[in-house]
Amino acid sequence: MDYQKVKNIVEGALMAAAKPLSLNQLDDLFDLADRAAQQDRPSREQIRQALQDLEEEYQNRGIELKQVGSGFRVQVRQDYEAWIGKLWQEKPPRYSRALLETLAIIAYRQPITRGEIEEIRGVAVSTNITRTLQEREWVKVVGHRDVPGKPAMFGTTKEFLDYFNLKSLDELPTLAELKNLDSFHPELDLEGDGDKKLSGEEAAATESGEASTVEAQSEPDGVAETAGDTNVVDLETVQEVRPEQLH
Amino acid sequence: MDYQKVKNIVEGALMAAAKPLSLNQLDDLFDLADRAAQQDRPSREQIRQALQDLEEEYQNRGIELKQVGSGFRVQVRQDYEAWIGKLWQEKPPRYSRALLETLAIIAYRQPITRGEIEEIRGVAVSTNITRTLQEREWVKVVGHRDVPGKPAMFGTTKEFLDYFNLKSLDELPTLAELKNLDSFHPELDLEGDGDKKLSGEEAAATESGEASTVEAQSEPDGVAETAGDTNVVDLETVQEVRPEQLH
Amino acid sequence: MNEIAETPLPAAQEEMPFALVQGEPLTMVPKDLYIPPDALEVILEAFAGPLDLLLYLIKRQNLDILDIPIADITRQYMDYINMMEILKLELAAEYLVMAAMLAEIKSRMLLPRPTSDTDEDDPRAELVRRLQEYERFRQAAEDIDSLPRMERDLHQASAEPPLIEQEKPLPDLKLQELLLAFRDVLRRAEMFSHHHIQREPLSVRERMSIVLSSLKPNVFVPFTSFFKVEEGRMGVVVTFLAILELIKEGMLDVVQSEPFAPIHIKAAGSSAEKGDDDEGAEPEPQGQD
């Protein structure tokens, strides 16, 4: 058999198998029922040579041929992990309406206790929400109100300002400006309508757990555009994994 | 970014993903949070170029780069199937005529309801078939016909194209054109419009064409019947038609 | 004859159930209905419907689909149907509907027709149309079946991915989303009418949080330590207002041992040993909505 063909079959097999193949397994591929093909069978030496040549050919490529415990396999070079890894990157979840409202109330009315937040929102605030906000380091307990039960008072953090690219809370719109948010940021009109639909009972309905995703709100360019979105990464959740095959 | 690196990342991604990747998906790989990396980002043109170069590099190899419905895919060349197929014990699934006919009708006539498929096939389409087609993700409900009962309309998916190695529905084999009775009774046609003027020769051609088929058909029934199937009708008068519509 | 022998079968042929009977005695008996019963069963079950059976009968005799000898075909068709009934094969209702259609065409063919014959007048026209329409898709099915396909002819090439450092991404939040959420809260709570809220500078609120969080339980902090020269006059004013507001809300205790002595501040009620946790003493909110 033409050596180039042997090499191509070996290459094809390694790439089709999606697992390491031993020299024996590769050799077995050439056991064809057809007698003529059988006589034309490559030697083990040729197969070995093919593996060696492939390894060299892959030298400057995105892939490499590696011998591992159970045989030979083609793998993507580790150098490109940063890019390839994005294939497995999950889409970030979205925060619930309840969480957004809670965060906004804390920002504007801090220091404030949970009970006071609930009073403004008109519905209960789950501990999940405050915990998530604290884990995100946007909110912290700044003290305790001196009333029975000594409830914690929440305030926003430096990280909160950084995330939204604010020098101080003064840069947030005033309530008067908020009231006219539509005219203030005309490009927000559409969102405004969408949002209104969600207020009231529906906002309450999304209450349970901030992990649940809120309706996709694609924001147009605007104030928040400047926020350094993607940089915030919780280092503790980083783990090394061998990705499963994408479905 | 060094072009060689771009090419290696594209190659690595196609191989690591183990499924087709669209140009957008490939492009997204280079969206890194790192600002420096971001500035060094390759252009879409470079990515396209990398795909083209990879395709050429694979020219004499065991693999090939193919554009299918949902993007670009590296696949083992069909030439080596005799050997590569030995990697798997089980035989690839086969599909019944009823299923393939249903699939064909959906592919060429989409969007189409079950009732419309049944009208063409002259027999009921079992729910098994539509379920299998949907489970394989070759077919999906693309809408509902606005008639009483609001029957579901089926269409094919990108996965269908992927599976059958097609880039788009345009690449489907052409569908035979219908003949009408006029072409069989040319002498009865009194109105000589452009189309019909040819009918005399056409009929003659058909006759001679069929004469040769007749010979071939004098084989014992079974063989002749199946072998001749396509030839008898289509031999001379059939023109190629592109499948209508698509996407 | 050599050429005939070499006539290749369509590639998809072997996919078809018909292949099962090829080479069987059945194929040796041309144009005759003698077929071994078990082979017949295979054949009959292989028909994908009445149109398929009709096409089979037509092609078997190499007839032109456009000029079907209806009487013959109808007789043969009925023979098959009877056979299927004798063999107690499940007979789809469509086979019988077709039988009725054939009978009707046959009887209409016996009637004299006007000489200015057109398609529409030919009783077979509709049948021919349907047969052709079906046939082209039967062919298309074979064509699709013979396309190179994954698993059977082609295989996805893949390589082991590198070790991936997977980050669990955190949700993104745009400032607008936050502001819009707050606006809706305010609308709901009808807070826009409360002017005192509107006038309150946010920097004071922010400073209140900063002052509070810099206090430790039970530790008095000198009043002056909250004022930083580098913040300028505005900074001093903001801090002062923040502390006044905190005192007013009862969140700070202020102590001065004697007039003009240094003023000290501590968190109100912080004599209670209280962690930084908001859980515990606080009652869980009742009923989520």
Structural account:
The complex is a heterotrimer, with two copies of chain A (247 residues) and one copy of chain C (289 residues). Helices cover 42% and strands 11% of the residues of chain A. Chain A has 247 residues and is an alpha+beta fold. In chain A, α1 crosses α4. The radius of gyration of chain A is 30 Å and the shape is rod-shaped. The model of chain A is unreliable at 183-241 (pLDDT under 50). Chain C has 289 residues and is mainly alpha-helical. Chain C has helices spanning 2-6, 37-46, 50-60, 70-86, 93-110, 125-145, 175-189, 195-199, 202-214, 232-248, and strands spanning 155-156, 164-166, 221-222, 252-256, 263-267. In chain C, strands 3-5-4 form a three-stranded antiparallel beta sheet, with helices on one face. In chain C, β4 and β5 form a beta hairpin. Chain C is rod-shaped. Chains in contact: A-B, A-C, B-C. At the A-C interface, α1, β2, α6, α7 and β4 of A face β1, β2, α7 and α9 of C.
- Terminus-to-terminus distance of chain C: 86 Å
For the sheet with most strands of chain A, the description reads:
3 strands, antiparallel
**From the helix content, strand content and strand pairing of chain A, which structural class follows?**
alpha+beta
Proportion of beta-strand residues of chain C: 5-15%
Our count of helices of chain C gives 10
Largest sheet of chain C: 3 strands, antiparallel
Count up the helices of chain A.
13
What general outline of chain A do the C-alpha atoms trace? rod-shaped
Task: Give helix and strand order of chain A, one letter per element, not per position.
Answer: HHHHEEHHEHHEEHHHHHE
**Radius of gyration of chain A using CA atoms only:** 30 Å
Strand order of the biggest β-sheet of chain C: 3-5-4
Distance between the termini of chain A: 37 Å
What are the secondary-structure elements of chain C, in order, as H or E?
HHHHHHEEHHHEHEE
Q: What order do the helices and strands come in, and which of them pair?
A:
The complex is a heterotrimer, with two copies of chain A (about 250 residues) and one copy of chain C (about 290 residues).
Chain A (H helix, E strand, L loop, with lengths): L2 H15 L5 H6 L6 H5 L4 H14 L5 E6 L2 E6 L4 H4 L12 H13 L2 E2 H8 L5 H9 L3 E6 L7 E5 L1 H6 L11 H5 L1 H4 L4 H10 L2 H5 L33 E3 L6
Antiparallel strand pairs in A: 1-2, 3-5, 4-5
Helix pairs in contact in A: 1-4
Chain C lengths: L1 H5 L30 H10 L3 H11 L9 H17 L6 H18 L14 H21 L9 E2 L7 E3 L8 H15 L5 H5 L2 H13 L6 E2 L9 H17 L3 E5 L6 E5 L22
Antiparallel strand pairs in C: 3-5, 4-5
